[in-house]
């Protein structure tokens, strides 16, 4: 497995266009969040758990990050997975290793590592903006909760987009699924299903808390990891050339 992961990084990690697009998207995410903070009445956003200006700004970043999950997943999925369909290299790759599940899991792990690195890098940039541009003191403990939320409470949504690139042979169509997912997120908030179930599978969970519980937070993180892993296991079973 480790050999396959290294092969994926060596093969696809040298594509400048992948880093360029992700860089542009990350900068856009930070920029749009900064604009929203400047033009939003942040006091009205503060709730039982979200109290300080720093925390409120982070809540806005959380909300915006949900929009970018599918977009980032689409870019990573296209350049790591869909490219194999485009270049007709799936059969050669699978025959060379002899294990379909190992190849698919290796690609998923690499895709996830790119995604997690993206979140760490651009959330760190956002913290820098808060510290310098907004002149706010960084709340370390809350920032760590934010980072964990952004990284792991979005795994299910990210995996859903990645699954499209495995199961849909046309890369453009797989990318278009991101739009469909975004439309669903716009429609679902008004339903009980979203409020009581889907919210547990999005980074917005932290921002919507009335009271923070370590046990509850860890449970939600574990839930996201388990659901994402289960989704990927299902993708491996359903994958066919």
Nutshell version of this structure?
It holds the Pfam family ABC2_membrane_4. With 241 residues, this protein is mainly α.
Task: Give your account of this protein's structure.
The chain has 241 residues and is mostly helical. The protein has one domain. The chain is built from eleven helices and no strands. The two termini are 21 Å apart. The model has no long low-confidence stretch (mean pLDDT 88). Pfam families: ABC2_membrane_4 (PF12730). Keywords: Membrane, Transmembrane, Transmembrane helix. The chain crosses the membrane at residues 17-39, 59-83, 104-128, 140-160, 172-194, 214-236. This is ABC transporter permease.
What's the overall average pLDDT, rounded? 88
Oligomeric category: single chain
Q: Structural class per helix/strand content?
A: mainly alpha
What's the Cα radius of gyration?
19 Å
Could you say which overall geometry the principal axes of the C-alpha atoms support?
globular
Count of individual beta strands: 0
Mind sketching the topology for me?
Blueprint: H1 2-12, H2 16-39, H3 53-86, H4 90-97, H5 100-132, H6 140-152, H7 155-167, H8 171-187, H9 192-196, H10 204-207, H11 214-238
Helix pairs in contact: 1-5, 2-3, 2-5, 3-5, 3-6, 3-7, 3-8, 5-6, 5-7, 7-8, 7-11
Transmembrane segments: 17-39, 59-83, 104-128, 140-160, 172-194, 214-236
Pfam family, one: ABC2_membrane_4
Protein name: ABC transporter permease
Key phrases:
241 residues; mainly alpha; 11 helices; 0% strand; globular; transmembrane; ABC transporter permease
